[in-house]
Amino acid sequence: MLKERIETIISRIQQLGGDVREVVIDEPASLEQILQTEEHLGVKLPASFKKVITEFSGIFNLRWFLPDNIELPIEFRGIFCGTPHWSLEYLPQFEEDRKGWIDNVFPNPEDEYDVVWHNKLAFCEVGNGDYLAFDMKDNTDAPIVYLSHDDGEGHGYKIANNFIEFIENWSRLGFVGCEDWQWLPFTTSSISGINPDGEAAKRFRTCLGLEL
User: Fold this and answer.
1) Which residue from 128, 131, 152, 153 could staple onto 147, CB 3.0 to 4.6 Å apart?
2) How far apart are CA 141 and CA 23, in angstroms?
3) Which residues of 39-50 are buried (b: 16+ CB within 10 A; e: fewer)?
């Protein structure tokens, strides 16, 4: 289902004259690889994340860009690409980077802004210093939150209740870019998550001719 959705997104972006620069769908991760990563990190990975990487792919990377001449409605003017990715192999590096931000910039767990960076597990590097991360305070299955390093509007937003919900909802938006301004049009509050069935999402899919 997910692989077919990815193929639909790729095909439509190319039909629009856009650029698909990278598609990586690696083999599923093994339980041994997961255990090694958990031991390295010192935490148990969220259940929904483990389900996706063991049943779909341990390394996924897609990079697409809309053509320069496309004219989207003003509410979607900030959307120009899709760069979803995750990798079991890179989790320790992303975590090291997140902890570096805490040590050097956001050390105070009593500070309203700083605390968002604490008790998280970064899994997706946005590319501008921001991260998508699991909120590890949840004892059942970690919600997905946005970590902004520079007062981004989406800082601390809960994007989804768990990784499976996140991939399901995000993919129905064509995997729009990781930057908060690209997915914020599809939220209604800091706790709403991205809504693939909202009016904004329907308008966006209509604009691109995406049937997802």
Assistant:
1) 131
2) 28
3) eeeeeebbebbb
Here the tokens at position 131 are 């991260």
**What is the rounded distance in angstroms from the CA atom of residue 79 to the CA atom of residue 77?**
6
Which candidate, 177, 181, 150, 196, places its Cα nearest to that of 66?
177
Q: How many helices (DSSP H) and strands (DSSP E) are in the chain?
A: 7, 8
The bridge status of strand 144-147 relative to strand 131-135 is antiparallel
Collect all residues with Cβ–Cβ distance below 8 Å to 8 and sequence separation of at least 6: 210, 211, 212
Each residue of 119-167: pLDDT tens digit? 999 999 999 999 999 999 977 799 999 999 999 999 999 999 999 999 9
pTM of the full predicted structure?
Answer: 0.96
User: Which residues does residue 162 pair with via DSSP β-bridges, in sequence order?
Assistant: none
Name the residue among 55, 62, 61, 127 with its Cα closest to residue 89. 61
CA distances from 193 to 92, 109, 186, 198 (A): 26, 24, 8, 11
**What domains appear along the chain, each with residue ranges and CATH number?**
2-208 (3.40.1580.10)
Beta strands of 15-143 (E only): which ranges? 19-25, 59-65, 81-82, 85-87, 120-125, 131-135
